[in-house]
């Protein structure tokens, strides 16, 4: 406290004024009697009792508290600023550009903002949102959360090193290292530790939920992935998923032409899994072969059946449900033949 030049042997209730602030000795410490310390320089251990009005700067070593009715900031540098209705706390947090309605808390968080358009950002965590230049309405919580975003808007990421791309918009990312693809994407939802982390991945309107869950391939859009390659069971209190099938939303309706001939060309098989990534080996199962389904579609010029998902040519996926209309048609054809036999018209 030497810098304050307080009396060396004060009596209880003695007062002393220093740098425009009046203090009273309570027998142990000097307590501030002033409620306006807008222009005070405080050094040492000070107890402030009651309301304090600040319209200027308070210094604590290398840190400054600056504020007024419109903003509050606690930083190591007077050059770091926050706009109206803003809060700025942390070493190197914020930038020299005033962006309004921002809450920036953490080491070097939001330190690249260079446009007043970067409004309404909430950045909490060391280097959170530290690449944002003009992106707005982003919420990044966690160390290095949203660290690659520069101009993207309306993103929310929560978790250590959770990403939303460099320029993507409207993404929701939850989980440590989640969404760390190195690419840009928009309107995506990724939830889970290390979900959506294939380097270079881009796309729109994709969702990946669960540990290591990944979209099928780089650049795909409009996919929903549940879990990684080790998931063996999907559970729900119903066995069906409904989708739009209203006649008012269809045209050119006619009875399907594929039936028994198509089904006869498809081979049901049983087999042992031997996945190349090692996720399932020597597990006995049954189903179809994706390549054989493709051959059947080609044979009948019926690629519109779309029973094989081939967005990733190295991992073909089968859509068994797409065969149901053809199977129903085949059953109807067989039923007609049975009736013919019963009536002696074979």
Number of strands: 22
Range of strand content: 15-25%
How many helical stretches? 3
Order of helices and strands: EEEEEEEEEEEEEEEEEEHEEHEEH
Major beta sheet summary: 12 strands, mixed
Helix content: under 10%
The value of Rg in angstroms is 33 Å
Alpha carbon gap, first and last residue: 111 Å
Please give the oligomerization state of what you see.
single chain
Quickly give the structural class: mainly beta
The gross shape turns out to be elongated
Trace the largest sheet across and list its strands: 5-6-7-8-9-10-11-12-13-15-17-18
Average residue pLDDT: 86
Low-confidence stretches: none
Structure, explained:
There is one protein chain. The protein is mostly beta strands and 346 residues long. Among the domains are: 1-53, no CATH class; 252-332, no CATH class. 10% of the residues lie in helices and 23% in strands. The strands form 5 sheets. Strands 5-6-7-8-9-10-11-12-13-15-17-18 form a 12-stranded mixed sheet, with no helix packed on it. Strands 1-2-3-4 form a 4-stranded mixed sheet, with no helix packed on it. A hairpin with a 6-residue loop joins β19 and β20. The protein is elongated and about 125 Å long. The relative contact order is 0.05.
């Amino acid at each position: 406290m030497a810098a304050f030049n307080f009396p060396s042997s004060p009596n209880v209730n003695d007062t002393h004024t220093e740098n425009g602030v009046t203090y009273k000795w309570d027998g142990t410490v000097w307590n501030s009697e002033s409620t306006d310390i807008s222009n005070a320089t405080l050094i040492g251990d000070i107890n402030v009792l009651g309301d304090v009005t600040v319209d200027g700067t308070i210094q604590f070593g290398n840190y400054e508290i600056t504020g007024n009715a419109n903003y509050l900031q606690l930083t190591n540098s007077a050059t770091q600023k926050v706009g109206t209705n803003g809060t700025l706390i942390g070493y190197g947090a914020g930038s020299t550009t005033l962006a309004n309605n921002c809450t920036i808390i953490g080491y070097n968080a939001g330190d690249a903002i260079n446009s007043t358009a970067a409004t309404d950002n909430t950045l909490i965590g060391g280097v959170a949102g530290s690449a944002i230049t003009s992106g707005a309405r982003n919420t990044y919580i966690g160390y290095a959360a949203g660290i690659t975003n520069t101009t993207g808007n309306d993103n929310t990421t929560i978790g250590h090193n959770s990403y939303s791309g460099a320029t993507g918009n409207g993404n929701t990312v939850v989980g440590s290292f989640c969404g760390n693809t190195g690419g840009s994407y928009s309107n995506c939802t990724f939830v889970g530790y290390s979900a959506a982390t294939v380097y270079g991945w881009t796309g729109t309107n994709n969702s990946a939920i669960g540990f290591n869950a990944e979209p099928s391939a780089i650049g795909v859009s409009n996919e929903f992935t549940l879990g990684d390659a080790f998931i063996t069971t999907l559970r729900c209190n119903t066995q069906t998923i409904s989708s739009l099938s209203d006649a008012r939303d269809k045209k050119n309706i006619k009875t399907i032409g594929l039936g028994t001939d198509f089904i006869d060309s498809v081979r049901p098989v049983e087999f042992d899994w031997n996945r190349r990534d090692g996720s399932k080996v020597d597990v006995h199962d049954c189903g179809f072969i994706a390549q054989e389904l493709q051959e059947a579609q080609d044979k009948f010029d019926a690629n519109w059946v779309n029973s094989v998902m081939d967005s990733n040519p190295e991992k073909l996926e089968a859509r068994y449900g797409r065969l149901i209309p053809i199977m129903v048609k085949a059953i109807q054809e067989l039923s007609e033949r049975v009736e013919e036999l019963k009536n002696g018209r074979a």
